[in-house]
């Protein structure tokens, strides 16, 4: 269970929100000239990182507005919440939140015992 | 195969206080080079190594596991086995597995505790009835033993079920008598023991950090115990498959989410079959120890934390209590989560990819355990022959560009 800070309503329980998957996926501008493979990529393929993930949320049991968030999928820590019309934050802003090569931070990933 | 377990060996070992059973598999240091490397020491991975060695004569195989054997989803599921899937492709694949399950204890001389106690899929509204009856008909055309039961027949089978006095009344169910449950640890251990006997190196506590490729050809894996060379690599890492694929520059249409399960305190036998319900999000069976084994849904967002959200359990338990009022005051003992890799069409990917020598067996989502022997069997064939077995040919990655999806959202049930 996560607490999410809706940019319009403030901090609420995650159960008030619905997740909209990866953010910043842009519909191709030239669908008629795309190959089946490229079109398949757009329709079915999404990033699935263990670590920094840009995603969309909608406050479906609140203001019903969409917004974006940056979350560390190995800890569920939400690193930033921003409105849809705001600029996508740079990946380098969050790099120091990841510790190990495969993305698990040393504390709190749930996959490993807490190490000091 | 050495027959390790029999009534005489049990009596003999009991005389020495069970101190002399010996190790079930070696714990070797990794060699510099293997002919085939399997990444992931769960049931699917160990099974793949076993069938590669046994059926395809591959000698030099390693299974690399980052934790201990079966510590991922093999040890975290609710052990339900069934094959009542809608489409021909899925029915072939899952029933191939059920047929192997039926002889697995004998094949490996290790007790899988495979119990064909039947699986019920409940219908709670008109739409459920139509969808389930359609699936039953499709199953029967594929020679599966699924049948439609009306409300009274369901009640006869599961007397503790509340069929009338609830928000979504039980109107009937699909029933597959050949379905059931098995012991999940035994699957990993049985395959591990026999694979080890055939010379497979099982390397535990060794994490694969990346797959090294050169010009669309695999060269080996970078691990916490150094670089290991191989020209064929099979990735069977469930939730972490897309993370590994990314290190080889391969993108997969997978999303990883936590899936939870929980068990109750042990009680006397009250339910002797497996009951699943899509509409109210609940499934339950009773283990041989007497615990209720309850499966919950996936979290609504991508995550690699092996925990899952509390609201998901709450929803499931709510449905269980309404469906079985007798469980209202039971205490839950344990809860856990596993990271499942969900495919857009709720069917697995057992496929080659653009990189030569790199094979994937993934996308099993919330229902991989039931398919363990079948999946391992056809994946071994795919790796050994460098082409898919006819059973897993439809489960290629190419279906996400040519549109031949195998949509099993209905049959994959609860958690998708």
Describe the model.
The complex is a heterodimer of chains A (116) and B (416). The longest helix of chain A is centred in the middle third of the chain and has 9 residues, at 36-44. In chain A, strand 5 (66-72) and strand 6 (77-83) form a beta hairpin. A four-stranded antiparallel beta sheet of chain A has the order 3-4-5-6, with no helix packed on it. Chain A is globular, with a radius of gyration of 16 Å. Chain A contains one helix and six strands. Chain A is mostly beta strands. By secondary structure, chain B is of the alpha/beta class. Chain B contains ten helices and 18 strands. Chain B has helices at 7-15, 43-55, 88-108, 126-141, 151-157, 184-197, 241-247, 310-323, 372-385, 399-402; strands at 33-39, 61-64, 80-81, 119-123, 147-150, 172-176, 180-181, 201-203, 208-213, 218-223, 226-235, 255-264, 274-277, 282-286, 292-298, 332-342, 349-352, 358-362. In chain B, the strands form three sheets. In chain B, strands 1, 2, 8, 9, 10, 11, 17 and 18 form an eight-stranded mixed beta sheet that branches. Chain B has an eight-stranded mixed beta sheet with strand order 5-6-4-13-14-15-12-16. Chain B has a two-stranded antiparallel ribbon with strand order 3-7. In chain B, helix 3 (88-108) packs across helix 9. The longest helix of chain B is centred in the N-terminal third of the chain and has 21 residues, at 88-108. The interface between A and B is medium-sized, with 33 and 30 residues.
Please outline what is shown here.
The complex is a heterodimer of chains A (116) and B (416). Chain A is mainly beta.
Q: Kindly report the CATH topology of chain A.
A: Folate-binding fold
**Please, what is the CATH homologous superfamily of chain A?**
Folate-binding superfamily
CATH architectural type of chain A? 2-Layer Sandwich
Radius of gyration of chain B: 21 Å
Distance between the termini of chain B: 40 Å
- Count of DSSP-assigned helices of chain B: 10
* Helicity level of chain B: 25-40%
Helix content of chain A: under 10%
Structural class of the helix and strand makeup of chain B? alpha/beta
- What's the gyration radius of chain A in Å? 16 Å
Major beta-sheet overview of chain B: 8 strands, mixed
């Amino acid at each position: 269970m996560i607490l999410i800070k809706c940019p319009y309503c403030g901090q609420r329980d995650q159960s008030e929100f619905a997740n909209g998957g990866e953010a910043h996926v842009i519909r191709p501008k030239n669908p008629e000239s795309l190959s089946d493979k490229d079109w398949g990529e757009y329709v079915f393929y999404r990033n699935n990182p263990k670590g920094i993930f840009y995603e969309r949320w909608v406050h479906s049991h609140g203001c019903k507005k969409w917004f974006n968030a940056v979350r560390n999928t190995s800890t569920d820590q939400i690193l930033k919440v921003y409105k849809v019309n705001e600029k996508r934050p740079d990946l380098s802003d969050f790099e120091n939140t990841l510790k190990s090569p495969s993305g698990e931070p040393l504390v709190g990933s749930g996959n490993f015992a807490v190490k000091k | 195969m050495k027959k390790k377990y029999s009534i005489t060996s049990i009596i003999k070992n009991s005389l020495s206080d069970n101190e002399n059973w010996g190790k079930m598999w070696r714990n070797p240091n990794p060699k510099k080079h293997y002919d085939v490397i399997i990444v992931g020491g769960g049931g699917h991975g160990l099974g793949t190594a076993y069938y590669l060695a046994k059926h395809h004569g591959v000698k030099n195989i390693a299974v690399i596991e980052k934790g201990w054997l079966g510590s991922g989803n093999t040890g975290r599921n609710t052990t339900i086995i069934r094959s009542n899937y809608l489409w021909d492709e899925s029915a072939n694949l899952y029933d191939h597995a059920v047929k192997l399950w039926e002889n697995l204890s004998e094949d490996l001389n290790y007790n899988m505790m495979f119990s064909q106690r039947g699986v019920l899929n409940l219908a709670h509204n008109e739409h459920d009835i139509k969808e389930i009856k359609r699936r039953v008909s499709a199953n029967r055309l594929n020679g599966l033993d699924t049948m439609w039961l009306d409300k009274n027949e369901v009640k006869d089978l599961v007397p503790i079920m509340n069929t009338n006095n609830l928000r979504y009344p039980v109107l009937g169910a699909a029933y597959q008598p050949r379905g059931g449950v098995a012991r999940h640890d035994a699957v990993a251990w049985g395959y591990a023991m026999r694979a080890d006997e055939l010379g497979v190196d099982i390397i535990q506590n060794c994490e694969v950090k990346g797959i090294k490729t050169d010009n669309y050809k695999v060269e080996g894996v970078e691990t916490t115990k150094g670089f290991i060379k191989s020209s064929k690599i099979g990735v069977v890492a469930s939730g972490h498959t897309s993370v590994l694929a990314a290190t080889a520059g391969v993108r997969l249409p997978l999303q990883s989410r936590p899936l939870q399960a929980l068990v109750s305190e042990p009680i006397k036998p009250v339910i002797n079959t497996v009951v699943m319900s899509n509409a109210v999000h609940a499934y339950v069976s009773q283990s041989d120890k007497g615990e209720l084994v309850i499966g919950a849904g996936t979290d609504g967002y991508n995550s690699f934390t092996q925990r899952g959200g509390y609201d998901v359990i709450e929803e499931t338990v709510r449905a269980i209590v309404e469906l079985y009022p007798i469980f209202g005051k039971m205490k839950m003992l344990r809860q856990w989560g596993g990271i499942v890799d969900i495919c857009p069409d709720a069917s697995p990917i057992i496929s080659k990819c653009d990189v030569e020598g790199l094979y994937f067996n993934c996308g099993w989502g919330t229902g991989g355990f039931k398919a363990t022997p079948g999946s391992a069997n056809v994946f071994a064939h795919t790796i050994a022959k460098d082409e898919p077995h006819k059973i897993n040919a439809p489960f290629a990655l190419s279906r996400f560009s040519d549109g031949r999806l195998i949509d099993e959202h209905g049959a994959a049930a609860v958690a998708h």
